[in-house]
Write a structure and sequence with these properties.
This protein is of the alpha+beta class. Helices cover 38% and strands 23% of the residues. One of its GO terms (molecular function) is zinc ion binding.
Length: 804
């Protein structure tokens, strides 16, 4: 048997040769001999075939031409190999092997001549021709012949001579034009043909062979073939029976091994099922391969098995068979350019179905996103499948919401499913899904129907408000938000400019969150006026106060018409801020404020109002009589800085020793303490009098020291500035043709330098012709700059008079 990319040539025991295609169909048949066909050989083109048979016949002929060679020998011819390029006229060569190895060549007269390449070492068992190299095996080993130089370049001896060469024949195959793989018994050798350096040749061949890898296997080799950097090995295996302790033949194996330098690594191993393997021997199996198609043919006496390298489709088939759908999907995605029989979508759909069958609905729904992608029809089909098994909730989080968009009915169906059983889930979908995915009015009506059964359900009410918002029915949405006191109510008002809708809902907004409500109302005065807000809050004075107070803090003048009202509001709800309000407001009616403060007995506020109205003596009297606080009275007197008030304060305090102590401690810088000390009655016991007097003296000494220090600083600064002014005035001032007279505006220097002239220059740098200045009087002989004097800058006296 031999193999070509296009067909398989198979010889029989009855002298016939069949050409079969890859599917095993017979395409051609040749009657060669009445006896067994020993060997078939094809050239690389597949157009010429060489056949040898048991009766010694050798034929080389063209499959598609009339070219033919016949020869009959007196002994069986076991081997034949035609030149790989036999189709070329210069390569009409072939070799045959029996007792000797013969080379046949066609001469220029179209005659064939033969020459012996080798003999005397037993039968030729195997021949392989690649390029210009012929390799053959006999009983002693393997030889390689260079057809170009007509030299044998190596001899690789047989390792195990105990094995019969006819029972365990040698297997040869060329990996490429310089690499020969030899398998004999359990041994494998990889030989590389190399060029010999010119300096080493002498009488040696120009090429030599180096064994680059050699290792032993646990089986006998029936055939070899290369597969990238690995080897495909047809293995003949014998095992020992545990019962009879005899060897028996097992099924042949097709192994893939990775050769190493001195050993090998098994990549995969497959046992082959062939008929009659129990009776077969190592020599009964043959391995041929097709380089172009990566097909491997295993021939046994009864069967021909075709093997091919597993591709990604085969791998995916195996994964699907083992129900490893996720791995199959991943493999298909990685190799999508190389797979031919599978589609990623089909694998994905099978994976989804598998997950659903296992009850892993959430995982199946999640995988839909990746597998279904943008195929809307498939999405809708899967949604209905999930509906049939009651698992719409599982697929809802993964439905597409933009590209693609499914039919509204799909989304409505899922929303109804949640509305019937899970209000929170329904609310989540309404928040997450854009409102244009479904018919909003249908969902609104469904929610309202459910609210008839449970009218206080906050989740449904909030969701209904969101639906109203999607539908731009902001009024209804706002009403629900206010009822629920929902935090988004202010955002809704701002976002959709609903200020016209809240004019009658101000109290509700203030009750919900007065601070946010007031800020919003004040920020939008142009949309809801201050007057409208105050009117709406008329029945809720505490809220009215909150609004007006914040308005006043922002602007003291905007709400001036309500300042009178605010006095009562502050007095009722916020007394701590009443006094700051009275101090900051210039629009507050003082009489009304005084009346309210006196009615409520607000002493501090009354004192402030009395002082502001000019009645400081009454205010001081109230502090002394009502508050009994000498420190506050002293502070008040300091603020007013009125001598009469100090006199009243001294008169009121003169019979009260604690008050006298307070005055002595504080009035030293405002009133002469002697006035107070002279009025103290003899014999009156005053607490801490000694300390108070010491403090008065210390304060006096401190004042003296401060005055002296200030005087020294003032004198030093004056002297420094005087020196600086003197240095400045001593400097010269440049006068040139560009300067002008500030009076007549003509150049200050004459155009004719020979003429006499007189110029006056002031310290302020203004310049005048002397004749342009007014005459000095007898009372004040000093001249001054007219310009600086007119601008009230002080007189600028002349510093220089130039004459010529």
């Amino acid at each position: 048997m031999t193999v070509h990319d296009k067909f398989l040539a198979l010889g029989t025991h009855y002298g016939k040769v069949y050409l079969l295609d890859v599917q095993g169909n017979i395409t051609q048949k040749f009657d060669i001999s009445p006896v067994k066909i020993n060997q078939i050989s094809l050239d690389e083109s597949g157009e010429h075939m060489g056949v040898c048979s048991e009766d010694g016949k050798v034929q080389v002929f063209g499959l598609y031409s009339g070219e033919e060679f016949h020869e009959t020998f007196d002994c069986p011819i076991k081997i034949i190999a035609v030149h790989p390029h036999f189709v070329r006229s210069s390569c009409k060569q072939f070799v045959t092997g029996g007792k000797k190895l013969l080379l046949f060549e066609r001469s220029w007269m179209s005659r064939w001549k033969s020459s012996v390449l080798h003999e005397g070492e037993g039968n030729i068992r195997s021949v392989k021709w690649r390029g210009h190299l012929i390799a053959w095996a006999n009983n002693m080993g393997v030889k390689i012949f260079d057809i170009t130089s007509k030299q044998r370049i190596t001899n690789v001896p047989r390792d195990d001579i105990s094995l019969r060469p006819d029972m365990y024949p040698c297997s040869l195959c060329w990996k490429d034009s310089v690499t020969l793989i030899i398998g004999w018994g359990p041994s494998v050798k990889i030989c590389s043909v190399k060029e010999r350096h010119a300096s080493e040749m002498r009488d040696l061949p120009s090429r030599y062979v180096e064994i680059v890898s050699q290792f032993e296997t646990e089986f006998y080799i029936s055939g070899l073939a290369p597969l990238c950097d690995q080897l495909v090995v047809l293995s003949y295996v014998k095992e020992v029976s545990e019962k009879t302790e005899r060897e028996y033949c097992t099924r042949p194996r097709l192994d893939i091994i990775q050769p190493l330098s001195e050993t090998c690594e098994e990549i995969s191993s497959d046992a082959l099922t062939v008929r009659g393997f129990q009776e077969n021997e190592c020599r009964d199996y043959h391995l041929e391969y097709s380089e172009g198609e990566s097909l491997f043919y295993i021939v046994s006496p009864r069967d021909v098995v075709v093997a091919k390298e597993r591709d990604q489709d085969d791998h995916i088939d195996w994964l699907l068979e083992k129900k490893k759908y996720e791995e199959a999907l991943m493999a298909a995605e990685i190799s999508q350019k190389n797979i031919k029989r599978h589609k990623i979508l089909d694998i994905g759909l099978a994976y989804i179905n598998h997950l659903v069958e296992k009850g892993e609905y959430d995982i199946a729904a999640r995988k839909c996103q990746k597998i279904l992608g943008k195929n809307a029809a498939l999405w809708e089909y899967e949604v209905y499948k999930f509906k049939e098994i009651g698992q719409l909730k599982a697929i809802s989080p993964y439905l597409p919401r933009g590209d693609p968009v499914l039919k509204p009915l799909i989304y409505e169906m899922i929303l109804h499913e949640f509305l019937e059983s899970d209000y929170e889930g329904f609310a989540t979908l309404i928040r997450e899904w854009p409102g244009d995915l479904y018919n909003n009015s249908v969902i609104v009506q469904a929610v309202r129907d459910h609210l008839k059964k449970d009218s206080q359900n906050r989740t449904l009410l909030k969701t209904l408000a969101e639906l109203y918002t999607y539908d731009k029915n902001y009024g209804n949405a706002l009403e629900i938000y206010l009822t629920l006191r929902h935090k988004d109510v202010f955002q809704l008002i701002h976002k959709h400019n609903l200020f016209s809708s809240i004019k009658d809902k101000i109290v509700l907004l203030m009750d919900f969150d007065s601070e946010k409500a007031v800020d919003m109302l004040l920020d939008n005065e142009d949309k809801i006026s201050i007057k409208k807000v105050v009117e709406e809050l008329e029945d809720r004075p505490e809220l009215q106060h909150v609004y007006l107070h914040k308005l006043f803090k922002r602007d003291h003048h905007k709400g001036q018409r309500y300042h009178e009202k605010q006095i009562s509001l502050y007095a009722e709800f916020d007394r701590p801020n009443l006094l700051p309000f009275l101090r900051d407001s210039i629009h507050c009616p003082l009489e009304k404020a005084l009346e309210i403060c006196q009615q409520r007995n607000f002493v501090e506020e009354t004192v402030y109002l009395l002082s502001r109205m000019g009645n400081s003596r009454s205010a001081l009297k109230m502090i002394m009589e009502e508050l009994h606080d000498v420190d506050k009275a002293i502070d008040f007197a300091k603020e007013q800085d009125d001598g009469e008030l100090w006199e009243d304060l001294i008169l009121y305090s003169i019979d009260k020793p604690p008050f006298i102590t307070g005055l002595l401690n504080n009035i030293g810088t405002h009133v002469d303490p002697i006035l107070l000390i002279h009025r103290i009655k003899e014999g009156m016991e005053i607490p801490n009098l000694r300390d108070s007097l010491v403090k008065i003296l210390q304060d006096y000494n401190l004042q003296i020291l401060l005055r002296e220090g200030c005087k020294k600083i003032l004198v030093a600064d004056s002297l420094s500035l005087l020196k600086k002014m003197h240095r400045t005035q001593m400097k010269g001032i440049l006068v040139d043709e560009e300067n002008i007279c500030e009076s007549c505006l003509s150049p200050i220097l004459p155009s004719d330098a020979a003429k006499p002239f007189s110029v006056v220059v002031f310290h302020c740098r203004h310049m005048f012709h002397k004749e342009c200045l007014p005459m000095t009087s007898m009372n004040s002989p000093v001249q001054f700059c007219n310009i600086c004097s007119a601008k009230h800058r002080g007189p600028g006296s002349a510093i220089l008079e130039m004459k010529k």
